[in-house]
Structures are given as C-alpha cells and as structure tokens.
Write a structure and sequence with these properties.
The chain is built from eleven helices and ten strands. The chain is an alpha/beta fold.
Length: about 350
C-alpha cells in the first residue's frame, strides 16, 4: 500500500475515503485545562493530520470544532479535507434520541455534518442527563435497546445529511452480524473502532471485517498511559524488545514502529496526544516501511492483551445476556458483551 504524508487514505465500502492516521482527542474534563484540545487539533492540522476522532463524551467537541473552523477560515484546509468522527454514547441509543445526540455534536462543533458517526458501545445505559447512570448500590443502570432500531435511526441521519457515513465501535463478530443481516439494511457499517496494537492484533476480527469490507480503526494503538478504564498491570508495549530493535534499525521510535505496523496492514490508527512533540512524532511514519519479515515478527507479539478494560459489572452482563433471543431483527440487548474484539 503506497502511502505518503499527503496521501494515506483507505477506501470505505460506501465509496468515501478515510485517512489512515488520525488524532484521538479523549480528555478527562477534570484534569485537562481548557483550550488544550483546541491547541492540539490546530497543531495537528498544521502538521498534516486530516482525520480527527472525537466524541460527545469527551466534552471538548466545541474546541475541536473551533480548531477545524479556524483552520478552514485561515485557508490551511478546506472543510472537505477534514475527516471528523463523532460517537453516539450509551444514553442516546433509543432511536428517538439518536438524531438529537448527533445534532448536539454538530451544534458543539458548529459544523454542518460529520464525516462518520458511530455507535460507541454495543449496549445502552438508562437515558437521561447522567452519562453514567447508577442505582443506589453503585451499579450501572442498563436500558433495553434494539441495535437494529438504533442503526435505522443512524441511517436516517445519513439521509438527512447530518453524517456522511456510519459505523460502530467495540462490536464483536456476532454484534456486527446483527447489523449486517438486518432486514431492509440500507447502509452497511463502514468501520469498527476497536482496541488494536501489536499486543492485541485482533486477527480473527480483522479477517472477518476485511471479508465484509469493514475498515478497522484501532484505538490505543500504542497501548495507553490513561488511568481510567486501564489495566496498569499489563507490560508496557513501547518497551517491547522487538519493537525497540526495529526502531533502532530505522532510527525511529517504538511508537512510530507500532503505528507503522498497523497502517501498513490497513488498520486506521488514532493515537491520542495533546503533547506537541508526540503529535508531530506520531505523524512521521511515512518515510519508512517494514519488511514482510518484520511485519510477521510484530504480528507474533500478539498476547491478546487488552489495556482498556471498561468498568462494567460483568456478572450483570452475563446474567442479562443469557436472556437474549437471537432473532437478528428483534434482538434486544441490555447490553451485549462489552469486551468484543477477539472474535
């Protein structure tokens, strides 16, 4: 796959194109100073990033939108040059709430459309103003939802011109099949955003998605230093001896090697950073390539290690999942399984 800093897009099943490297914008509102995300996105666009990954949950889409709009106004890019992905959070999965959630994202961004809008998780929380609703015992309050009905609401958003494409995140093979086999399916998911890196290469799911022409977007492509929802006992990916030795050979960093590994096999990467030096470094992956032997060796590092572990009550998940009927159209999910990405 020929890639340059100015041309590194992958074809989507709906005919549109997605840049293979983007900037992740996750932020903890309690710890991130105001304006930090704005500065990071503005710098990223100057460097050459054209793919920005965000979410209503991150509480900074206003800053992302400001950076994009200013970059357009300054003549650095055109709006159509920027690929923005937004996400539908768990409390908005009821069909009647899907469009209002997307409209809120557009209002915060002050943009007319997003390029991609995805279901963030294959589950739902109780609708309301609280993003993490819990009962008196501190357990998450789930909500019955029909993923197929949610998907139909997303399809309506495409028809309304609010989003160019639609996709999913954290879906496993079975959950993808629900959508793909839905009677009357109008638009297929173009992408599935999942954790993906050399310690978690996702071979089975990657093979399935390739067969179905669903692009894999890998979050946490460098592992992660984020403390929230993270298993800190896992070995640090960027200290791996093989990645270190390959990085030394090419005069690169282990992060650059890990990113190059994924994009070279057609996996989109969205490393998150608000550090100017890291933002620049992560984009410098188009002036070298890995050999077949190196790609195979890195593939062999797979340990099925997941850094991001969502803090959900798995006992409750198992209990409600057993009650699910497997009619692809009528299936209701209280939620589905949250750790989906191995099969």
């Amino acid at each position: 796959m020929a890639m340059t800093a100015n041309s590194h897009c992958i074809q989507l099943s709906d005919g549109r194109r997605m840049p293979l490297i983007g900037l992740g914008t996750y932020a903890d509102p309690q710890k991130t100073p105001k304006g930090t995300c704005y500065k990071a996105v503005k710098l990223a666009i100057e460097i050459g990033y054209r793919h920005i990954d965000g979410a209503l949950l991150y509480n900074n889409e206003n800053e992302v939108g400001q950076a994009i709009r200013e970059s357009v106004a300054e003549g650095k890019v055109k709006r159509e040059d920027i690929y923005y992905c937004g996400k539908l959070w768990n409390t908005f999965q009821s069909p009647e709430l899907v469009r209002p959630a997307l409209e809120k994202t557009l209002k915060d961004l002050q943009l007319d459309y997003v390029d991609l809008y995805i279901i963030e998780l294959p589950m739902a929380f109780k609708p309301g103003d609280t993003l993490y609703p819990k009962d008196e015992n501190g357990k998450h309050i789930y909500h019955k939802t029909d993923l197929c009905a949610t998907w139909e609401a997303l399809e309506a958003c495409v028809d309304a011109g609010l989003t160019r494409s639609i996709g999913v995140s954290n879906f496993n093979h079975r959950q993808l099949e629900l959508i793909m086999n839905k009677p009357g399916l109008k638009y297929k998911p173009v992408s599935n955003q999942i954790e993906c890196h050399p310690y978690f290469t996702q071979p089975k799911l990657l093979e399935y998605c390739r067969e179905k022409k669903i692009v894999i977007v890998g979050y946490s492509p460098l592992g992660t230093s984020r403390e929230f929802w993270v298993n800190l006992t896992n070995p640090p990916l960027l200290e791996d001896p093989l990645l270190t030795s390959i990085a030394k050979k090419y005069d690169k960093t282990t992060a650059q090697v890990a990113l190059r590994f994924n994009i070279q096999r057609g996996v989109v990467v969205i490393p998150k950073s608000f550090n100017p030096d890291r933002i620049k470094e992560n984009f410098q992956v188009f002036d070298f390539s890995l050999s077949d032997e190196e790609m195979n060796a890195i593939e062999g590092l797979n340990k099925n290690i997941r850094y991001v572990e969502l803090l959900i009550n798995y006992g409750e998940l198992e209990k409600v999942t057993k009650k699910i009927s497997y009619n692809p159209h009528k299936l209701q999910i209280y939620p589905s399984i949250i750790q989906p990405a191995i099969s």
